[in-house]
Each structure stands twice: as C-alpha cells, then as structure tokens.
Amino acid sequence: MLDLYQYPLLSLGLGCLALVLAPIEIGWQLGTRAKSSGGSNVFALEQALLGLLALIIGFSFLMALTRFEARREAVVNEANAIGTTALRARLLAEPHRTESLKLLQEYAHIRVENVRRGVSLADLPDVIARSNEIQEALWLRAKASAASDAALIPAGLFIQSLNEMIDSQGKRLAHLRNRIPNVVFVMLVVMTVISIGIAGYAGGLDLQRTRAPIYLTGLLLCGVIYVVLDLDRPNAGFITVSQQPMFDVISSMAAFSD
C-alpha cells in the first residue's frame, strides 16, 4: 500500500493540483464535442457528485482537526508532567536532586531539538530510545531516594509525577502515530478528480458557462485537501503544533536556583 507520509507535503500538494486541474480541461473538451447529445443527466450527476464530495471533505477535515487538537493537548500535558516532576525533584536529597534535574533538562531538550527540521517525535527512534534511557535512570534515582527516605514523602511525590511523565510520553506518541489512513486520502483525491471532471464535462455542454468558475472550484478543492494533509503532519507545513509549552518548561528549569 502506498504510504503518502514518505513524500514531502509540497510534492503531494503539487501532485494533487495536477490531478484535479487536468480533468477539468479534459472534461471540458469532451463536453464541447458532445453538445448535440444533450446533458440533463450529466447536470444531475454533477450536483450529486459535488454533494457527496462535500460530505467526504467535511469528514476528512474533521478527522484531521480532531487529531491535531489531540496532539496539541498531548504536548501541553507532557510539558506539565515534566515541569511537575522537575519541581518535585527539588525536594529530593543530594545527590539525587542534582542528577534528576540534569536528566530532566536533557529529557525536555531532546523533545524540541528537531522541531525546526519538521520531523515528528514519533519518527525519531533514537530520540525515543534516549528518552526511555532517561526514564530508566530517573526511576533508579527515585528508587534510591525512596530507600534512603524514611518518611517517603518527597520520594513518593517524585515517583508519582515521574509515572505521569512516563505515561504522557506514551500518550503523545500514540497521538502522533494516529494518522488519517492513506485510503481516506486516496478516496478523497479520486472523488475530487471524478467530480471535477464531470463538472468540466457539464460545463462544456452548457454554452453559457465558462472555464473560470470550474477552475476556481478545483483550486479551492486542492486548497482544502492540502489543509487536511497539513493538519495531519503536526511538524511540517504551515500548520504546526506549538512546542511553546515545552520551551516554557525548559526556561523554568534553567531558572531553578537550587
């Protein structure tokens, strides 16, 4: 099965533009040659296909927007979990406090280092592996701190927030990997090509029509498909998930006085 996520967003957008605009001209030429045969059925088919296409576009846009919001919320939740863990790490006795804070700073930094490259965290196995190593190292320090803490209050609070931080990574990765199936995009493009081709054919049958409205419709459809593709790629394109909550956590940890 073709994996659309292997191709750059711009290439997919240009390919979609060509696939949508070409059938307009082909349909128009065929329609002008078939004027004498009439086209009442074609006009009815045009309206039905455009209505079905609007339904599919709305469904696809809702899928992409829902996933985008879930990924944005996952960043906020993970940043909050890291920040809470860092605050509670300051309650630990030395040397666990300094070691844990150093690991947490690295943990937050590696999550934003590749943002400007437009690469999703789920597509960085080395970063995920290093994150898992840091989590294990933090857990060992929490275990050691609990063994030396008779009251278990600071260590217990740290362990609780550390568990939440570990869980937040799993949830964030799950949201990043929950992409719109390729078959939905393929069906969307196929329906657009067929519908816009029939619209071009119907335009060629009608002497009072011009190409401009149909081409404008095709451009608008391409724009909507591009937005759907963009929403489903949180670290590429024009619409990206803000990493500002993670930057704020990094800044707050850097400002710790002890």
From TrEMBL:
It comes from the Bacteria. Keywords: Membrane, Transmembrane, Transmembrane helix. The chain crosses the membrane at residues 7-28, 48-65, 180-200, 212-229. InterPro entries: DUF4239. This is DUF4239 domain-containing protein. It comes from Bradyrhizobium jicamae.
